[in-house]
Amino acid sequence: MEEWVGGLWHKYITRKANPEFDLARVTFDEVSKSVGMVFRALGGDAVKRVEAASAREYLTRKNFLQKISGDTQLVSLAWQDDESLRLPESLAIFEQQSLNYDLYIWLAVLAANHQGKFRHWANDNQALVVNVLEKFPSMRARYQKLAQAFVALRPAIDTLPKAEQEMEQAVIQALLKPGTVKAFPLVDFAPKAVYLWLYPSANEKDLVMPEYQDPEQDEDDEQQQGKAAKKSLTSRKKAERVDAPDEKQGMMIFRLESMFSWSEFSKLDRGSDDSDDDEDYQSTVEDLDQITLAKQQEQQKSGQIKIDLDLPSASEDDIPLGEGIKLPEWDYKKQSLQPEHCLLQPMLPRDAKPQKLPVKLQKLSKTIQAQFEQLRSVRYWLKAQPQGEELDLTSWLDFHVESQIAPTGEKGLFRSFRGNNRDLSCLLLADLSMSTDAHLDNDNRVIDVVQDSLLLFGEALQSVGDNFAMYGFSSVKRHNVRFTMLKNFNEPYSDHVRGRVQAIRPGFYTRMGAAIRQATRVIDEQKSSEKLLLILTDGKPNDIDHYEGRFGIEDTHQAICEAKKLGIKPFCITIDTDAQAYLPYLFGSDGFTVILRPEQLPLRLPQLYHQLTSQ
């Protein structure tokens, strides 16, 4: 009974202490596409991810109900860094849902126009707001509506200590009349969260915030161990690096009364696992607000064995061709190419034996070949010919008019059909990274779908007679970019090629920039007037070194720009449902397509090629 009554009381007092309007709540997932579009359309960095921000500690004065409820001061704020823009997981600041939605849009506009780092949080935000309102006058009415509604919800000034009254008055004036406040007084607590402004990222240093000092915590503040806010799986945690503790003296400290809560920080050695299959590690990570990492000291052990599990042994690996090719890589921070930064290794699939087209694909192959026969049979007119199938009326009319004026020599008065003249080369580059080993259903993996797609693509292009090549790629850091040759431009499509395709195996990572540069070199050597580079992938560029995140995106973007400058047309075909977040930047709005049902890829790939080359 006591537990039941206590649970009811906790829910009641927590709800009373919470100033938010839950019925008007707008979540980030509901507006993520809209704010992403606004952010990039108004000048925001096209490569930055737009994601939800995890709640973080924010030291403000708590009211009476918040002290009783023990509510922790965790606030989800808007901030950005070089990699991403982070917006609150949800907003329920206003009683009207439309205002909460408008606040998301306003924060996206603000972030799109913020460059560099904050030096003085309040003054810089005022200047940023002034700049946005001058640049986009249509935003004035929306901002004033948000500012007035937000100010009305802030605590009454006369209920605050005198020093904090001056601070609150300055914040209100800065919100209603941005740019008019130059100085903020010294106070013990930060002002209540200003949701209309951007906050610095957790990594920013040398930052001047509105001046406040951390007071000594009273007993109530020391007992802040309330419930942790539920985090989105997409939100990031605050991180901190510390020196590794002495594993012989480390210990875990907890108070019995908080036995069922998680300590937010404990200096203990986590180097060895207590294999407990019942622990819910994902739930534990979600409950922590700050994750602390320490680099372990290197230990000398007489029986220590070092094993590299990244690459298979030479006897099991694919067959290397030559010593490798050194390629440059783009460093977006320096805005320059680093020469000979990557080593690309051409390879042949091991144990590849000549094979026929699998029986399960033969019927579909005949259907696709029949469709591609239309490309072979396309014909065009040659005009003003001395002989042909029919009279060229335009040439005849010119001849008739000229003959009335003066004697005219013999001219071609006919037009004639000619067969199709497809001067085209195509290189298909397939992602063979470990992610393609994922299962689509009980019987098929992504790599199985990729193999079928390559086989049907080869059958289709063989039937139309186009010049084509097929390669696969994967990588393990910059010194081992694997470039698997399935068919080059100089060899016919045969059972040897079919055998190589059926021998490919998934593994490793996706250093896409180096693979695209080598594919560009190969296709650029062809003499065709039209050159098409098709890239088949299931995810974004990544590797286990610095190539993760923006570095990989920028290098791939640069490699694609290099290909375009040579007159090559890159086009990406992906089964990644999150591709809309990065492919428009890489290939342009019309330079890619997303296959929502991966099992349709074998059929869709030849169809897409048909569409791209028959225009």
Helical fraction: 25-40%
CATH architecture of the largest domain: 3-Layer(aba) Sandwich
CATH topology of the largest domain: Rossmann fold
Structure class:
alpha/beta
Polypeptide structure, described:
The chain is of the alpha/beta class and 615 residues long. The protein folds into 3 domains: 221 residues, no CATH class; 244 residues, von Willebrand factor, type A domain (Rossmann fold), CATH 3.40.50.410; 40 residues, no CATH class. It contains 17 helices and 21 strands. Strands 10, 11, 12, 16, 17, 18, 19, 20 and 21 form a 9-stranded mixed β-sheet that branches. A 3-stranded mixed β-sheet has the order 2-6-5, covered by helices on one side.
SSE blueprint:
Blueprint: H1 2-17, E1 26-27, H2 28-41, E2 49-53, E3 56-57, H3 64-69, E4 74-75, E5 79-80, E6 84-88, E7 90-91, H4 97-112, H5 121-135, H6 140-153, H7 162-176, H8 219-222, E8 238-243, H9 281-287, E9 290-295, E10 319-320, E11 325-331, E12 336-348, H10 359-376, E13 380-385, E14 390-391, H11 393-405, E15 414-418, E16 424-431, H12 446-464, E17 467-475, E18 481-487, H13 495-503, H14 512-524, E19 530-537, H15 550-565, E20 568-574, H16 583-587, E21 592-594, H17 601-613
Parallel strand pairs: 2-6, 8-9, 12-18, 16-17, 16-19, 19-20, 20-21
Antiparallel strand pairs: 1-7, 3-4, 5-6, 10-12, 11-12, 13-15, 14-15, 17-18
